[in-house]
Amino acid sequence: MNILLDENMPPQFRHHFPNDDVRSAQYMGWRSRHNGELVRLGRDIFDVLITKDKTIAKDARLTIEDVGVIILVPEDQDVSTLVRLVPQIKEALQTIQRGQVKWVPPESAPNYTEALH
Fold it and tell me: Which helix (DSSP H) or strand (DSSP E) does residue 2 occupy?
C-alpha cells in the first residue's frame, strides 16, 4: 500500500509500516499544503493519507477518486503514543477504501451530525 504521512506526523513514523511504501509530505515537497490540495496531489500516487488533522474530512470534501484518510486522535503528542496506535492503524489499512475516512481510535470519531455544523 502507498501511504502518505501528513506534515503533522513525524517522518520516522514510516518505519512502523515496513511492508508498505510510506512517504512524508515533507519528502514529497508538499509542506504547507491545504487539506484539499494535499488530498488532490496524493490521489494518483497514494492510497491512504495518515494525519492528526481532525478537520481534513470536511475540509477536503473527499470523493471516491481521492485517497482514504486515517485520522489519528492520540491522547497526547508524544511519539510513543502514536506508536501504540500502530496496530489499530494497520487494522484500518486492511479495509479502508478511497474517499473513506477512518478514525483511530474508532471511538474518537465525531458524531457526524455535530461535525456538519
Answer: strand 2-5
CATH number at residue 34: 3.40.50
- Cell numbers at residue 81, please? 503514543
Domain boundaries, position 100: 2-115
Exposed (0-12), middle (13-18) or buried (19+): which is 31, by Cβ within 10 Å? exposed
Predicted local distance difference test score (pLDDT) of residue 59: 75
Specify the DSSP element, H or E, that contains 50: strand 48-51
Taking the model in full, what pTM does it have? 0.90
Domain count, the chain: 1
